[in-house]
Amino acid sequence: MTGFPRTRIETLSVSRLIMGTNWWMGYSHTSAAKDKEILRFATAERVAEMIEVYLEAGIDTILGPIPLPHVQKAMAMARQKTGRKLLYLVTPSLNLAGDAKAHDENCRTLDECARLGCPVCLPHTSSTDALVDRRARVIRDMDKYCAMIRERGMIPGLSTHMPEAPVYADETGLDVGTYIQIYNAAGFLMPIEVDWVHRMIWQCKKPVITIKPLAVNKLPPLVGLAFNWSTIRDCDMVCVGTSTPDEVRECIEISLSILERRSPDLKLQRTRSKASVEPKK
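^ thats the sequence. predicted structure below, dont judge the formating
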């Protein structure tokens, strides 16, 4: 197993390249038809093949919601075949009603995350961002949810689409170990300009996991990954989604080539229009 660069979330060692799960669980950010097509092709066997390629490169960290049954099966298959462990950073949705029924539901959700062995639990943006109070510069009630996560032996984090969330968490000393933040060269799904998010990442007191680096295939892998790797800190991570083993290999090689400051060793796509720029043999 080669050693892809690693970083730490508190005491936990994680790979700096993280496996995204949107392309395994049917979240295309494109259309309902695309979502349906993803689930038709993302079988447990195919997902396991991709995970195995990641593991062979020393990439053992996955990010996503409580995994669907076919993803759980794929993880088990990959672990059995490779004999290697996986770290699943989970992003559950919470019930924010604040009553006893919501508390019981959240306890069951977090119990399930702990049962699955997730070392880090980052409430999803749908929960986190609903609690962000821009006027008071706080994330209301999140301290209670972080305490519930700690009680179950997991490291709390925040999954957010709002650049304010890490700022307020740092200002108030919220008990979290890492943040998830959308960050890509296209500004896709980003609520403010890219340069402002870039500054926020560099000012964060905790390591940041950047997501959607390819802007859902709106950016070529070389462009999207080069931007992210070149503009984040050594402690930060990049989470990328893939749908085939070859895409996994390309993302790994491109990432390594950027970090090692060399040209990627990849076979480029060939079309008739490229003939005029290819060197003569």
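The chain has a mean pLDDT of 94.
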